[in-house]
Specification:
alpha+beta; six-stranded antiparallel β-sheet; four-stranded antiparallel β-sheet; 39% helix; globular
């Protein structure tokens, strides 16, 4: 059965590749390749590059095949790919179109990843080390109600722009990231309610009861730190003044639990808190509930006014 499925996937991939190549014509190079994602996860992709272009949109074949198995014809998927490629190359296609210092400063933003798990990808990336993490520079090419399009800034492009060291620009790009993706801190019950509503479901009674409570009435055990779109929001931890803002909510110090690259959970320090148990919980959740490419770290962090921000090995 697995062999049969594998053959079907292979035939599908070949068919889509040929349709896209034939449809776009000789000015485009269409090839199947492996793309290394966050934390070393490798996915087979369809890479489409226009002649003379430095930008090459890629499409994950696994996701395309899943759509095909769900009932979408291969011809429709191939046409969708071609529409996206034509649209993107109708914007900017060459490095010279966006190499200027002013353009980069306006459209750069940061994403947070684990340093050790991404050593290979970081060789060609522009980034700044913080603790055991890396804040990686990305270029925003489009942002609308459907989402965003971006790519990781190649080190070669950064060097050609003559902008100096990444460390010198870190605070500036942080402010830009905050402008593009404002931070959001909410009770975990509010975050759960948003997920339920997004799935078109009704909040259960226990959640409604929790939502009606207030901080003064006891408050939430956990808070969620992310951005307004809840995507790649862990970087909000380093937004200018963020730790100071959180310190007002948790004056006695607090733990930051890396839920994923998308968010951090916040927990006030207390005598009952066992760091070893928190770290164990993080590891277990990472192994069972977080996609491999979305894992941020296997241990918690701690912040207090006297100690600053630090890792907690436990």
């Amino acid at each position: 059965m697995e062999e049969k499925d594998s053959m079907e996937r292979e035939e599908f991939a070949q068919a889509v590749t040929e349709m896209v190549s034939r449809g776009l014509g000789s000015r485009y190079q269409v090839e199947r390749t492996e793309v290394r994602k966050n934390n070393g996860v490798v996915k087979e992709s369809l890479l489409v590059r226009q002649e003379g272009s430095e930008c090459a949109p890629s499409f994950y074949l696994e996701e395309l095949y899943r759509s095909y198995c769900g009932g979408l014809p291969a011809e429709m998927l191939a046409e969708h790919i071609m529409e996206i490629v034509r649209e993107e190359n109708g914007g900017f296609a060459r490095v010279t179109d966006f190499l200027s210092k002013a353009w980069l400063e306006e459209n750069l933003f940061l994403r947070l990843v684990n340093f050790e798990r991404n050593l290979e990808q970081l060789k060609d990336a522009v980034y700044v080390r913080r603790l055991d993490l890396a804040a990686v520079f990305y270029v925003l090419t489009k942002q609308d109600e459907e989402g965003i399009k971006s790519f990781r800034l190649p080190k070669e492009v950064w060097e050609k722009a003559g902008l100096g060291s990444a460390e010198q620009y870190f605070e500036k790009i942080l402010k830009n990231t905050e402008r593009l993706f404002p931070a959001d801190v909410k009770r975990i019950e509010e975050s759960l309610a948003e997920c339920v509503r997004k799935n078109g479901e009704k909040e259960p009674d226990w959640l409604i009861s929790e939502l009606q409570g207030t901080d003064e009435a006891g408050g939430s055990l956990f808070y969620v730190l992310s951005n307004k779109v809840n995507i790649n929001g862990a970087i909000t931890l380093f937004y200018p003044g963020m730790l100071g803002r959180l310190e007002k909510k948790f004056p006695g110090g607090f733990y930051l639990i890396p839920s994923s690259i998308h968010e951090m959970l916040l927990l006030a320090e207390s005598e009952e808190t066992e760091v070893r148990e928190l770290n164990q919980m993080v590891c277990e959740v990472n192994e069972s509930h977080v996609a491999p490419e979305e894992v941020l770290s296997d241990h918690v962090y701690y912040y207090s006014k006297t100690r600053g921000l630090c890792s907690m090995a436990g």
